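User: I've been going back and forth on whether these two constructs are worth ordering. Before I decide, could you fold them both?

Assistant: Sure. I'll take them in the order you sent them. The first construct and its structure tokens:
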Amino acid sequence: MDILETGKSALTAILANRLRSFLTVLGIVIGVTSVILLISIVTGLQTFITNQIQGLGANLLVVIPGRIGGARSPGGVQANRLVYADAINLRSKLSSQAHISGVIQRNATLKSGNKTDKGTAVFGVEANFPQTVSITLNSGRFFRDSEQQSSRKVAVVGPTVKTNLLLGANPIGKKINVAGIKYTIIGVLAPRGSIFSFDQDNSIYIPFQSAQKQFGIDRLNTIYISVNNSSDIKNVQIKATKILKKRLSEDEFTIQSQEQTLSIISQITGVLALALGGIAAISLIVGGIGIMNIMLVSVTERTREIGLRKAIGAKPSDIRSQFLIEAMTLSGFGGIIGIILGIGFSLIIGRFFTTTVPLWSVALSFGFSMLVGIIFGVAPAIRASRLDPIQALRYE
């Protein structure tokens, strides 16, 4: 019996019990769909975060309080000792090589007329913030250095704030209440999207000194260092570290480059993709067990057929190949349907979140489904090939 004839025989046996065959491959379909869908979501998240970080500027260094993985206070929180003087000191020492901007942040309630926007991120930044971090405005302008130094009550708002407060098509010149203080809108940011459920567009930027006085904040959340020349990034990072270590210990701050940040994110999302993909792959194993059970039932139901085939000259290897091909066909068919559904669901979810279906996830899930079919099809195939033809023909 050649491979083509064996394949036709296996396909005929599968089509003879269509409902049972469909229910058998359902576990494979669910498994492959889940693997592709979960990996596409995680990969899409990684792509989105990477684009957002790169959008801040390729030559950006970020100074944050505390050291990643460093010592913590008794309460489990790393103490923040970054102050505005640190940003000024860095700017005075590195002015020829980089733009430097300190940032403070807190959440506040915004009001305009009878509309309220709760939990809005309020950033106190310096006038050089747009030159330090790559952000663009849809309309209006950013505040000037003189407005920052004089603590003027001016603000640049995000698109979500504009929408939530019903500020109209042109909010420039309108006033909004920021935690009890009125600010005049002078600019509207271009949309930036959400990251980790944080809506970056639901934010407002006000002069650093204005925020410091209003909220009584002494500590900086971040210091951004935008290096003028990409070849100087490492050198500037070393210099900035030495400058800050004159006042702070190495456990009290971290300077991250974009490359280091992206590396950490890639590691985290990579582990997440493997973990979620592994969990989803469990359903493939369950599907494989289903295939094995049905194939064992099929061997029992077709005992007389197997005996007849052996009686007219079929070899044990022919019987074994037939049942193994049936198992592989079932798993392969389930894999194809799962791939189609996985890509389809990914495209649907992609309308709301960033999703990316990497080719390796398709190849991996299909290959694993075929492997499951082979592994769980071996036992029924061997059992069928070992049946005694005389006893098989007598089987009722």
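The second construct, handled the same way:
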Amino acid sequence: MPDDKDFQVKVQRIGELVGELEKIADPEARASAKALVQLLLDLHGAGLERVMEIVAKNDDSGQRTIDNLGCDPLVSSLLVLYGLHPLDLESRVAQAVERIRPQVRKGGGELDLLGIENGAVRLHVQVTGDACGSTGKTLKKLVEDSLYEAAPDMSRLSIEGLEEPGGSSGFVPLGKLGGVIAAASARE
């Protein structure tokens, strides 16, 4: 079973390769490459959707299985990609905030969900007490990692109350992987 780090590396590599499709000079070759990726995504999406339908037919145990699949980080990301996750963005974000709030508190901070609008998530993290200088960075990484795992389809994550460190978390939102993948998640 792949670990989360390996999965994230693969997702980033897919994003890079999808971006490189735009650099193909020959318009016919570029269109064919994009069509191939789209057809593979459509095939995988249809298969995954059918699996979910079959599992759901098993009354309560089927829904429990689907809920459990939605809790697994790797499977959850795939369900989000294909628009099949059992929870909407708002619910996944709220659950993630509730799940990590005790860790943030233990780490010397307080976490509040300020709002979600058009896929953009706003949080507030306040460092409390006599925390050291690295506490803010540690809490920010904890919050980012948890939210990106729970809701890779967020359009943006803003964390207020902490200084913005330089650099990037390396997270690639699903919607940024290119029109091909975004189109797959919007298919009917």
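Notes on the second construct follow. Residues 27-56 form the longest helix (30 residues). DSSP finds seven helices and three strands in the chain.
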